[in-house]
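Protocol step 6 of 9: fold each sequence in the batch and record its structure tokens directly after the sequence line. For illustration, a two-sequence batch is reproduced in full.

Sequence one:
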Amino acid sequence: MDGGGRLLRSLTTALFGVRSQRVRPGDIEIPLLVGERTGRRGFWPFGARASVTLPLHERVSPRLFPLFSLTLLAGIGAAGLVLGGHADSFRKTFGEPHHVLARTLGLGMDRITISGLAELGEGEVLKAAGITPQVSLAFFDVREAREKLEAQPLIREAQIRKLYPGELTIVIREREPFALWQLNGEISIIASDGTVIDRLRDERFAHLPLVVGPGANKRARDYVVLLAEAGSLRGQIRGATLVSERRWTLKMSNGLDVRLPEDGADEAIRRLERLAREHKLLDKDIIAVDLRQPDRVTVRLTEEAAAARAEMLKNRPKPKGGAA
């Protein structure tokens, strides 16, 4: 009791509701904080302030200390690079700092698997996706890489997956080259729907059917159907020009032009195959065959053949009693 006859008690106990215990006679009264919740919530972001203050090594898992150390070292190193003016050369050699840190922690790209390739090479895919040794798996942007790949003319679809800690898988679905399209002297590789895949750069696609002229790329599928009707003549057809975006003119391997009608082109090409097989039409001295009329075949002779024919008609004996 104090001099006023009041019972002494702990101020901490009165204010915060914690139990106290006297240590030894003569000592001051020390409140023992036993972790009781006071029910009061202060300004601390996660509720009431903890009643016990533990040392840092007890509050933090020992497993996090290497991460803290690496982060600290990375921060010090980055600051040194910036202050020393070496940041640009560092990025060129090792990549961005966050990629370097991720690779240091074991989150690099240790294995990359690419499947679905037919015409493309692995190097072309990696370059298009922006994958270099300086990139880490952790900070690699899958969506951006997919958009870059699908922007390539030869790639229809791309799927990319991260498999932590260090593997990346890429599945490619290529556009299938269907035909060649010549326009204004430039030859392009096109898909079956007429989409331009790429310019013809080498002989890999020289065997594809060739269509020529404005709009011919959109009609390439129709031309391939016509080729199927050509039978034994198919190997002699070099290509076809779409005239006025309405009808085809075939170019034969011997330079002969075959004009097909707008309607009934399949029947006309079958008729041409019969004429070539039965009457050797394509072996004669002609430069063009017109099949646009269903009931007749019109041919155009070469200059030499035309001159010979004119000479023959000139020297033909006149019928008796005929007019001069």
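Sequence two, same batch, same settings:
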Amino acid sequence: MYTSENLDFAYRYPFTDTAKDIINSLNITSVDFKYLELGKAKASADINDSIKYYDISIDSIKIDELISYVYARMMLLSLNKLDYNEKFALGESKRVFEAMGKDSEINIFRLSSFFSINLRKDIDKDYLIKFDSYLHNIPKDPMFALSNQELHQGFVRISFSKLKFILKQATYNYIKSGLLQDEKIKLPKEIRDYAKDIKDEHKVKIRNTGSMAWIEKLLDTPITDVRHRTVNLILAPYLTNVKGLSVDDAFKIISDYIERCKLVNPDTKINETYIRYQCEYAKDKKLKPLSLSNAKELLAGVIDFEVSNEDVNKNKKSKK
């Protein structure tokens, strides 16, 4: 039987061994329609970046959340889509980040221990994290560069706010790698069937209107990957040479677009220097953007392109 302390810890961090032990103690033997719905909702919320952490006290709701996490994870294993796995890991790590902000120091150390992160507290109330643990879980942000950190006898001194980012990154790494390791597990038919209804609302269907309107639609659609080539092969040539914008104006539009892309997936090395160079190069060489057919190949799996019958009919009538 589990304690209230363990249940609270498991609710906050449903991927931990404590959560698995509680799930096992429930002796669940069949697929439950209730959790199919809850699991699908959780997976969809993660994928569409709308997952939230709620500080609740009712044990039955905590149990529901634990089980729904398991169902959501199984559904993602069934779908076997790398971009969905990425978003699920990212969403759950964000939820953990919120949970840590309202958690006890005991649980923070407990979570660190689960990740095998050697953590101490110093007399100045900062945290000391073992050098190798820091390197393994360092977020991709300049403020975490070693040159900006204070080192002390093999430990890195960090504040609690920075520690939360370290544990957030550790959560992301753990969940994503776990999905890759378990991808060959055989799953119940009910799980596989329900998983088919999970959709990524960011992965919109872009309709071909017989012009370059699909690029305008692309600019309204943050994408998770292939952003370097999208900038230099599509956006920079389109804005500078099709729309005739100045390099400065094209630079501003693309910079804003990349910032919105980071909200979907922050993992990118695109910077302002790269964007400006591509705009200047496209303008100077009078480059044209990729055709729609080539863009479909470039962005396959990132955006769904679709030609509607309505648009086809419109184009036929306009040619008569």
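Proceed to step 7 once all outputs are recorded. Observation for sequence two: Residues 227 and 258 are 8 Å apart (CA to CA).
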